[in-house]
Amino acid sequence: MSRKRLVPLLPVPAIFALGAAVAHAWLARVPHRFAVDLEQPLVVVTSWGTYGAGALAILAATVVVAAVALALAVRSCARTAQAGDTAAIVFTATLAVGSAFAWPFVFSSDTYAYAAYGAMAASGLDPYAPLPAGVHGAFYEAARWQWSGTYPVCIYGPAFVEIASVVVRAVGAHGVAATLTALRLLAVCAFLGSILLLDRALAGAPPRQRYVALCAYGLNPICLWSVAEGHNDALLLCFVTAAAAIARRHALLGAFLLGLGPLLKAPGAALAAGAALEPRLRGPDGRRFAIAVAAGLGVACAFSLPPLVRALGALSAHRPPAPDLAGPIAGLALAAIVASYALYRLRAGDPAGAAWLGIALFFAIPHRYPWYALWLVPWCLGSEGPASRALWVATISSVSRYLPDVTGYLSPGIAELASAVAALPLGYALRDVRLAARFRPPDPTHEKAPV
Asked: What is the pLDDT of residue 451?
């Protein structure tokens, strides 16, 4: 690993380390009324009013400054990219995630739910049904406290539930804090592994394209933060990148594995469908590739749908008052329009169509929490045009979606506004529409790397 190639990337972990120092200093001045939150195994900033907004401001500044530093580093280094740059990127990502891990708080309680689901599965209980009121335990009580009495039923795939149960069996005897740490470290290892797997999937790509893609993926500040929070999307990404790497040599096997992604989490279905539409990944025999993906999805649905139907039934039985559906319906309508345009671009052989599919997914998500960037960023990697840049920047601005949760007193409409703010950078993608007329299909004799 060349020091000359590593040094330009080091500001990213340095900025996260500085943010951690500021966060520790800020937390030392938090009012005593939040002492109960500080006593939890993992401090989650929720409903802290202006103090929550202050915590989020530290993260937002860290993420934005780190994104700018990364953009400058890529701009200066991409033209001289080398095969050995992958080691520098992985090493930098390791330092950055470690620095994010050092923060004294997070903004999501999801790892508490993961531990509770794993404990339920390990004890023979159904995590896709509400926990009976008479059942108690350290993991259940910790999760109940985070959700003010009742944590949500599991909506993840059975493969992830099994992984969570293995972690609980292995580490649970050491307490809730140790188990939460283990789950977070598992997400970190999965994400770092996915960078190496993506590098394998991009074998044959021009060095510059490969470098930009690996940096955009592995050093995206929101992805790094979400991984440090422990979100299981990192496991899905590791699985998907492994399947894509396998598809380079064994197309049908890789395609089938891509279809199994929903066994971990539902967004795996969207990533599999996108892979079936991406011409550079499916190769010359696109029909057989799509059939193999569909076969994998069929297997995943056979195992995932029955428990998810139980979970949806439990959610409908305890459904809150119907929310205002105007925003989600408008988002879905816009997503459908953008997806149609994306398919048009992909049929023309334009790799920017993948970014437009990612934008369609962005609009389809009702609440664009930052950790969704973990499965939105891969759609940016097929091209470097305005659509890809706009989607990448939108993942950074998604940090605004934390605001209603960390303050706790903002109206529901503010959550919609925060999601709308995250979508503002997508306006830059309109420039890509004007550039589309200049697109020329690539020379079929020139090998291109898959997304």
From this structure: 39
* Residue range 153-176, pLDDT digits in tens: 999 999 999 999 999 999 999 999
pLDDT band at residue 275 using 50, 70 and 90 as cut-offs: confident
Q: Are 88 and 96 in contact (CB under 8 A)?
A: no
CB 248 within 8 A of CB 203: yes
